[in-house]
Amino acid sequence: MYFVLIGLTACSIQSQDSGLTNDLANGSARQSSGWTVGLDPAEIVDIEDRSGLERLVIGGGCFWCLEAVFELVPGVKAVESGYAGGTWLNPTYQDVTGGWTGHAEVVSLFFDPAETSLAWLFDLFFKIHDPTTPNRQGGDVGSQYRSIILYRGAEQREAARLAIARAATVFEKPVVTELTPLGDFWLAEDYHQNFFRLNPEYGYCRLVIVPKVGTALDFMATE
After folding, report:
1. Does the active-site annotation cover 62?
2. What is the total count of domains within the chain?
3. pTM flag (> 0.85)
4. Does 215 fall in a domain?
């Protein structure tokens, strides 16, 4: 990922959002609507114990951003950063950023459909990234940053198709989100997991992730 202008703009973000960043990192921030920021450790489920949950795999820019946002959502029980949509087996971050594996940076969400709907998750997804820019999100440029939904079954495919159609009525430019079946999902390296929570002072977190989290909180507060 490209860290464009971080040195010039991080200070202004820090002055405006340092409290929000710290609260997001420790999970203590709350909105007046009652939304709790961050996954409650008591609700995080192990990979072996996800019965009754649905899985959604999506990508739209750096997976640090998507992970930070979807950890805010009640009903989302686990978020994992990884790689999907490519051809290589067990790719590394270096392989994917090289652009030759075909993978996108994605997150795998496990959520309780009794607490949050697939359609709502898609609407949040389109709220916090730009699906009209092929192979980039802001300063993050490359096919690994493309907008992509990797569906599991006909129901998810139809829900994704409808969500893309809704997004197309909002954006002036054509929506270029890729819609494709989920094949292999490869878990990203440990240092990519929970990146925002563990590195709230990092320049990219302040410059790019904090504004996306703010947008997500505003969206959730209206629901």
Report:
1. yes
2. 1
3. no
4. yes
